[in-house]
Amino acid sequence: MARKRTLQPVNPIHPGQMLLEEFLRPAGKTQTALDLAVALGTSRRLWMNLQATFDLEAPTRKRRAA
Length: 66
Hints:
The two termini are about 20 Å apart. By secondary structure, the protein is mostly helical. It has helices at about 15-25, 35-40, 45-65.
């Protein structure tokens, strides 16, 4: 059976890591507003999708290793 190709990253980045590296450090900030989308000019869906992708990868890797 052929594997279905996906566009999901092989090693997803944690949303907090992206937030730190792409937004907070460059802006010289250590923390930001609760509403990241408004504070950073991004979409709400960006942060939810990053978190969901990261959360789904951990059990998938664990299952593959078993």
